[in-house]
Amino acid sequence: MSFKRFIAFFIVMISILSAGTAFADARTFAVYPFEINGPAQYKYLSRGVQTMLISRLNWTGHFEPLAASKELGEADIPSSKIEEIKSAQQLEVDYLALGSITIVGKDASIDLRMVDKDGKSWTKSAKTTIEGLIPALDGIATEVKGELFEKPGSKKVTKEEKAREEARPQDALNPEFISASTAAIPMQSAINPQFRYEGGAETPGRWRSQSIDFVNRGGFVADVTGDGKQNIVMLSDTEVKVFGVEAQRLKEVASYKYATRANGIKISGIDLGMDGVKEVVLCIMMDSRPYSFIISFKGNTPKVLVNRFNKFLSSVRIPPNFTETLLGQKLDTSRTFYSKDVTEYMYSNGELVPIRHLSVPEFANVFNTSFLPEKDDYKILVLNKYGRMVVYNKALEPLYESQNSYNSVDVKFESIARIKGFGTENKKDKMEHYYFVPMPITIASISDPTKFEVLLNKDISVASQVFSNYKNFSQGELHSEYWDGVGLSLAWKTRRIKGSVTAYGLADIDNDGEKELYCILNSFPGSLGVKFRKTLIVAYELNLGKK
Known about the structure:
Blueprint: H1 3-24, E1 27-31, E2 35-37, H2 45-57, E3 63-65, H3 81-91, E4 95-104, E5 107-116, E6 121-129, H4 133-149, H5 159-167, E7 177-179, E8 206-208, E9 219-222, E10 231-235, E11 239-246, E12 249-257, E13 263-270, E14 279-286, E15 289-296, E16 303-309, E17 312-318, E18 323-329, E19 342-348, E20 351-357, E21 369-374, E22 377-383, E23 388-392, E24 398-405, E25 412-414, E26 434-436, E27 442-444, E28 453-460, H6 463-466, E29 475-483, E30 488-494, E31 497-498, E32 500-507, E33 516-522, E34 535-541
């Protein structure tokens, strides 16, 4: 054997022996469930934080969790220093991790105590918000490993994290968007970052249509005429209007009038023929009863496919495939509109055939419910009667409720619950109750192609905070939020939109091959000038600098 080969062989053997020694000397730890001091709705964090900390403290070959650590329950938590030493000896681990989280309002305080097998302990603490709980736990875990192995601040980037960062859009966000996290590359600007400025009339990346003389109640963008171009479909007080975009202006190409005494409450789109052309689902209230229609606008000519279906009907993307599906629901006058009677329907030979009943939360209906896809899982999103976003898991357990209200619009119908066998009250003697139909929630991947975001319109109005039946807003703000494991956190938002937003979404509104973020809104000439309201469209390019 030559001298060079001997040296190489010697180095390899030293490396193997060193690695073997390192793995053999790996320290071990066990994590107990955390004590949660706060509202009962956060008790689920006890187990959730335990699982998160196990994964974040783990460092293969150096600091590894007890195999049965996840099986440790609240009853196993040691109550004294002597019990802590005994627990470490019985579990045969080097360290125990015990902690608590105190929640007051939106603020959270984390206290983690690490105890070694000899009974010595030290504490790591952090103050954060509910949204920042996971990053705070990451920081504490990194500090603990840094103190134990003299590698403060070290963090190994995984292949998945690296791929996710490389997949992010490399162009700057539209200047109309304000980034709230690392969801995209920050916009470069010479303006003092302490100034929050509003986009002007010449802001690049934003398009605004002319004003149209009617009040809009909702809408969506899709090809409904079959010409391969996107249409803007809107609901007025008397008809469904279909527009095209020509020379940067809206042009009405078709319409469908419904009964003058009816109250139009919702339109949505669904591709029944799987041909790339969507049909319009119209839902109205007439004589205190719901009726739904499915209308085709192919060739710019309205044709009613389903007429006066006696239930509420809406198009919703549902699991497991998250394709647009028809959901129907009856109006039971013996109870409030919220009902578990949400049924999936299929269109066949001119009729709607019931397929199955959906398992949804107690206060869900066909208008306020959406589903957020996740890897091998999903969350159920429900806008409650106060406009707050409530997140459930598929076992229908509540996980999170927002503090702000979203997607409110001035579209309502009377919803009175009465006891069976009794007549309705005289209107003079009763207080009328209304159900306000919210805008549908848009789920999309914008900031991060590997994750879905929840697009919401934040309600901005002082009057609506005082008067629950006031839903006319002078301005709006579109938010992109993501599920961080604990709640919905803000990724980015648009600057203030002047007017009352009634619909929004993602679509190639100008037919240039790229999707835009659009919102349909009513102008706001003041509370005394509501009869002068008009409809207009505002669209934003998602990012600038496209090649």
